[in-house]
Design brief:
Shape of chain B: globular
Number of strands of chain B: 20
Helix content of chain C: over 70%
Oligomer: heterotrimer
Distance between the termini of chain B: 12 Å
Largest sheet of chain B: 6 strands, mixed
Order of helices and strands of chain C: HHHHHHHHHHHHH
Strand content of chain C: under 5%
Chains: A mainly alpha, B alpha/beta, C mainly alpha
Helix content of chain B: 25-40%
């Protein structure tokens, strides 16, 4: 079994080497998030106006900002916060969404219809606006960004888990599990959840990227994390003022960091989907 | 003799040494490995084989409709002397539909869901004939009439979802014959249709083909069907053609070992469970002697099931099963037979009616709480599709051990393993497969795991819901023999649900015929099949395709 | 005839069933706004040193002293009569502000959506026609990349390249540069208004202001649209009925256009509806980057300065637009797919 799984993973990775690269990228991100404070070349919040707005050089690889802070150090230091927000938000909505969704999908009925309708409304509503309003209402704190991001992610997980359980609940092996004397709770937890987890893992990976964009977007418009905390969205917002005068590095490097982070998680999600797709196995 | 003389002997299609391979992740797989055959003008050739035999791949190669991964690696396909394997796209387009045409399995999916069926037939006409819209419409209406579609003007504007499966296949036939091709390829044209619909569609198809003097290749897994409608039958196995002969020869004197096995395994009106293997390899053991019980094991009284606001799926059904008895439920789709099996298994609740098991009204226990009932271990079920009935994350051992844990309360690993291996052995599953996952097992092996799981809790009543419907006939034969042996050895009672009348006749002592949720007829199987009293039963029995040496040679 | 009446029935049913959702959104925003920090009466009062008496008076006037359910009823009555309150920052009625600014947002969104659809559908089809080819890989990679670049970064980089480096784009602020006077307001859509006024120069000026934000927005939604087109076209091309069409010898063009494309566009229609409402939300970021005077930036400014009536109005507007867009998609879907009539 293990050898066949390994060979399958190998097959997918050979067919799509980007997945391996994305995996390494994600690992690197986590490393930077953990050890960022110790590997930054400069203090990310120490300003030095005499060297403000300098383009990239050998001393400051990504240049300096309007207060003379080293942009590279700020980007590295921001990794922890951005990943923390995204990861906590996604885990919250994953746990809640998987539970609510799979119970709805398994039981069906009136509650399911109601939740389904609420989810439909939430999903179709401009979610970013919802997150904005929530952060404004709850106050500009990191945990509130996490809650807001978690809530706007929640409908996706509910809908996903619900659909995954729904297509399976009338399959022979679920009915067989009941005929074998399993209670409904056992059917959901021992049979259905393990079967939908791989597909959910793909969603988690794809959603991490989305959550990162969301959090950065919120701080870009001035909600959520506040300056001078280094955060990718704030850095882009601060650099925006200087773009029309050609100071591109203020925006480009934090933007690039955002993009690469999101790209890594998205590619990883796509690769995971290929690895876990039963149709690709024989 | 008369059939052979109808063809004038000149070959319309000649396939020589054809090989087709598919590129997959495990490298290239050769699906067809050098087959040769000819189809004469006005001849109907049957190509019979089980899944993986390459019969459909051969058909698709002739039409050059192989999907992207498939490639003809060797051989020639000559149609009227022209090598199809070398034709370019535009030449192929001129040929397809006009000179050779094809109808497919699953007719509804084969029609464009958002285009009226009449327009689709007109499209086929106008692709090859220079005709106005009005002329095409008039011709389409004629074609619809010729396939016996009533009110063709009205049906012209119908969409596929508004027509029944049988009607969709007739529309496909009209489309395929629109430009009067010389060769028609029918790829499992009636698979998935009910047996009575199958008969009308096939009768009509062969009549139209004969009338127009067309040649036809009928691809099917059903030896009976092929022998009934074809002049010659070719048998394929794993990409090779093993034998070609007239149906009479094939049945009376099969030469190749595989053909012998296939002929024996295909149920006929006279076959028995024992005769399903060619050399008498299987002998039914004697029934486990049990004193004739005073009360029946299961009685079902006036069962009704209504799903949310529709007509009742089950409408007042009553029956009884004695201990160790085997009762067959037979009917076409929509007869309510699967619903009954799930209600009796206590997976869903009935709307009304009583279910008594060993004297207790188990119908009163709601299905959602039945896992705690003491009867849970006594009533077990085997499901239709062996692929869908096993948890993909459970090994064969996990699947078999699950009911042992839940219902027998066995928790120590050693006895679990011993009991599971014992169940597997009784179901003919080799011990070295016990740790494999479903995707590593063949269809027949999965079916064995499903049966082992069901008998693990030592039930008194085993419900079998179309247990062999998704299996090839040769696998079906061994599974039926396994089920027959298990019942006789363990003394279980069976509630055997199937659409296949021959299977029911072989496996069950008594039979109930269902139609639209009601009992049409019930009685001892021998009597019911020999002298059916209801018209519907008679129609069902006469619709089963089978080789009949008495009349097939004089069919027109 | 029957098709049209069945679509009308269906649309009517959908409209009625979306009313509770609309009401839900209204109640939700109402409660949310009551939770928000800050007392509106304090803001409304004449000055920072207004007396407690004056504030209490204001509270009474605004109905803030009444219990929440009562306030909700008052609020619903106001909405029904078209009174969305008054903005503290602009001093104007919210409805008037929104009416003034909505065309700018719609002009941007529609242009971007049209651009995105015009690009995404051909790209998706081209990729699906030859899966595994260079075109396919390029399209897929572009899509993966497209969803990774946040609009606020791509917008700023576009400004850098086309305004700063090449000087092709005008100063990225607003809908018209300060030297051009706006055409007489008829529709509020500058392009249409200036064309109606037969003023080519203004039309060109407004178009050149529109290009960068619209492209930014289009890039953002290009990926999901192209992905969906590719996936659905691929599924349709592998379907049984396309095989039938080929077995009947239909011409390539007929197979692709009549048989494949019409079927493949059905799911794209649904996604386009969802994308539209996503764009309304994402407008916030793009409007901020380009100082675009639309409703989203209006709501954002109000939110940041604790001015809640415009935010409530904005959310209500979004919800109504969303209901309207869904109904439109429903009608179009009903026209395109005969299977819809039967449930």
């Amino acid at each position: 079994m293990t050898t066949s799984t390994l060979s399958h993973v190998g097959y997918v990775l050979r067919g799509n080497p980007l997945t391996a690269i994305a995996g390494c990228g994600a690992a690197l991100l986590v490393f930077v998030a953990l050890f960022g404070p110790w590997i930054v070349p400069y203090d990310p919040v120490a300003s030095n106006v005499s060297i403000s707005l300098q383009p990239p050089s050998s001393a400051h690889w990504a240049g300096t900002d309007q207060l003379g802070r080293d942009i590279l150090s700020r980007i590295l230091a921001a990794t922890r916060l951005d990943l923390l927000i995204a990861a906590s938000a996604v885990s919250l909505s994953f746990v809640a969404g998987a539970l609510i969704g799979s119970l709805c999908g398994y039981w069906g009925g009136k509650v399911d219809r109601w939740i389904g309708r609420i989810v439909d409304v939430l999903m179709a509503f401009p979610l970013f606006v919802l997150a904005m309003a929530m952060v404004a209402a709850l106050g500009n704190r990191v945990e509130n960004i996490i809650y807001a991001t978690a809530i706007i992610n929640l409908p996706f997980y509910i809908r996903f888990a619900r659909a995954e359980v729904n297509v399976r609940r009338n399959l022979g092996w679920v009915e067989a599990a009941r005929a074998s004397g399993n209670s409904h709770t056992q059917v959901v937890t021992r049979f259905l959840l393990p079967n939908i987890l791989p597909a959910m893992a793909v969603q988690i990976s794809l959603n991490l990227g989305w959550a990162i964009l969301n959090a950065a977007g919120l701080s870009f418009i001035g909600l959520g994390v506040q300056p001078p905390t280094p955060e990718w969205g704030i850095m882009v917002a601060e650099g925006a003022r200087f773009i029309t005068t050609g100071k591109w590095w203020l925006v480009a490097f934090p933007g690039l960091a955002l993009m690469l982070a999101v790209l890594c998680f998205n590619l990883l999600g796509d690769g995971l989907r290929d690895i876990l797709d039963p149709r690709m196995r024989t | 003799m008369s059939r052979v003389s109808r063809t004038d002997g000149t070959a319309l299609l000649t396939i020589e040494d054809l090989a087709v391979s598919f590129s997959t992740r495990r490298g290239t797989v050769e699906a067809v490995r050098g087959i040769s055959l000819t189809v004469a003008k006005s001849e109907i050739l049957g190509v019979v084989g089980e899944s993986g035999s390459g019969k459909s791949v051969t058909a698709f190669s002739v039409m050059r409709l192989l999907d992207r991964a498939g490639r003809i690696t060797r051989g020639t396909i000559r149609f009227r002397g022209q090598d199809i394997t070398r034709l370019g796209a535009s030449d192929l387009r001129r040929l397809r539909g006009a000179e050779m045409s094809m109808i497919f399995q699953n007719p509804r999916a084969s029609l464009n869901p958002i285009r009226p069926v009449g327009d689709q037939i007109s499209d086929a006409l106008r692709a090859h004939r220079d005709m106005s819209r009005a002329a095409a419409r008039a011709r389409t209406l004629d074609l619809l009439k010729s396939v016996l579609i009533r009110e063709p003007e009205k049906r012209f504007d119908a969409y596929p979802h508004e027509l029944s499966g049988g009607m969709c296949q007739r529309v496909m036939m009209a489309m395929a014959m629109a430009c009067e091709p010389d060769l028609l390829i029918a790829d499992e044209p009636t698979t998935g249709l009910d047996v009575t619909t199958q008969k009308t569609v096939m009768d009509q198809l062969s009549a139209m083909v004969r009338e127009r003097g067309m040649a036809m290749i009928l691809i099917t897994h059903d030896l009976g069907l092929a022998s009934m409608y074809c002049d010659r039958v070719a048998v394929m196995e794993q990409g090779l053609m093993v034998e070609t002969a007239a149906p009479a020869t094939l049945f009376s004197a099969p030469k190749h070992a595989y053909t012998k096995r296939l002929v024996a395994a295909s149920p006929t009106p006279t076959s028995t469970v024992e005769s399903l293997s060619p050399d008498g390899a299987y002998r039914s053991p004697p029934l486990k002697s049990e004193a004739t019980p005073t009360a029946p094991l299961l009685t079902v009284d006036n069962l009704v099931k209504r799903f949310d606001g529709g007509a009742p799926a089950v409408d007042g059904v009553s029956f009884a099963i004695g201990a160790g008895e085997s009762l067959g439920l037979v009917g076409e789709s929509g007869s309510g037979k699967s619903t009954i099996s799930r209600i009796v298994c206590r997976l869903i609740d009935a709307t009304s009616g009583a279910i008594r098991f060993a004297g207790r009204n188990i119908g009163a226990i709601p299905a959602r709480g039945f896992h705690q009932a003491s009867e849970r271990a006594d009533i077990q079920i085997v499901f239709q599709d062996p692929g869908d009935s096993l948890n993909p994350r459970f090994s064969a051992f996990d699947s078999i051990a699950d009911p042992l844990r839940r219902l027998k309360g066995i928790s120590d690993n050693q006895s679990l393993r011993r009991r599971a291996l014992d169940c597997a052995a009784r179901c003919g599953l080799p011990a070295d497969l016990i740790d494999r996952f479903p995707h590593q097992l063949s269809g027949g092996q999965r079916a064995r795991v499903g049966i082992a799981r069901a008998i693990a809790a030592q039930p008194k009543l085993l419900i079998l819901d179309e247990p062999t419907a998704a299996l090839d006939v040769s696998v079906q034969a061994v599974i039926l023999q396994l089920l027959d042996r298990l019942r006789r050895e363990e003394g279980m009672a069976y509630l055997f649900v199937s659409h296949d009348l021959n299977v029911i006749r072989m496996m069950c002592e008594r039979t109930i015929v269902l139609k639209e949720g009601r009992v049409v007829e019930q009685g001892p199987s021998d009597q019911l099949f020999a002298r059916p009293s209801a018209d519907y039963t008679r129609d069902l029995i006469s619709a089963i395709p089978h080789f009949d040496p008495g009349n097939s040679r004089v069919r027109v | 005839m029957t098709t049209i009446s069945s679509i009308a029935r269906r649309t009517g049913r959908r409209f009625v069933s979306s009313l509770p959702a609309l009401l839900g959104v209204v109640i939700f925003t109402f409660i949310l706004m009551r939770v928000l920090p800050g007392d509106p009466a304090v803001f409304f009062a004449s000055g920072p040193n207004a007396g407690q008496a004056e504030i209490d008076d204001l509270r009474r006037q605004m109905g803030l002293d009444k219990p929440i359910p009562h306030q909700l009823m008052l609020y619903l009555r106001d909405i029904a009569t078209g009174n969305l309150g008054r903005s503290l920052t602009t001093g104007q009625p919210v409805l008037a502000d929104i009416r003034q600014r909505l065309p700018a947002s719609l002009e941007l969104t529609f242009t971007a959506l049209t651009l995105a659809l015009l690009l995404a559908i051909p790209l998706g089809i081209a990729a699906a026609m030859r899966p595994g080819s260079l075109v396919d890989h390029a399209v897929r990679f572009a899509c993966t990349l497209g969803v990774c670049v946040p609009t606020f970064v791509s917008g700023l980089l576009l400004i850098y390249v086309f305004y700063y480096l090449f000087g092709w784009a005008p100063d990225p602020t607003g809908r018209l540069d300060i030297f051009t006077s706006a055409p007489p307001r008829l529709t509020g859509f500058l392009m249409i208004d200036s064309l109606l006024a037969r003023d080519g120069a203004v039309a060109r000026a407004s178009a050149s202001q529109l290009v960068l934000p619209a492209v930014t927005m289009a890039l953002f939604v290009l990926a999901p649209l192209a992905r969906m087109t590719r996936a659905s076209m691929l599924a349709v091309l592998n379907s049984d009925y396309i095989r039938t069409a080929e077995a009947m010898g239909l011409s390539r063009a007929r197979v692709i256009i009549v048989y494949a494309l019409r079927n493949a566009l059905l799911p794209v229609l649904t996604i386009a509806g969802i994308v539209f409402s996503t764009m309304l939300g994402a407008n916030v970021l793009v409007e901020k980057v380009f100082s675009w005077p639309g409703v989203a930036s209006y709501a954002l400014d109000a939110l940041l300065s604790a001015d809640y009536a415009p935010v409530q109005g904005f959310v209500l507007l979004m919800a109504s637009i969303f209901v309207f867009v869904n109904l439109t998609v429903d009608v179009l879907y009903g026209l395109a797919d005969p299977r819809i009539g039967i449930e």
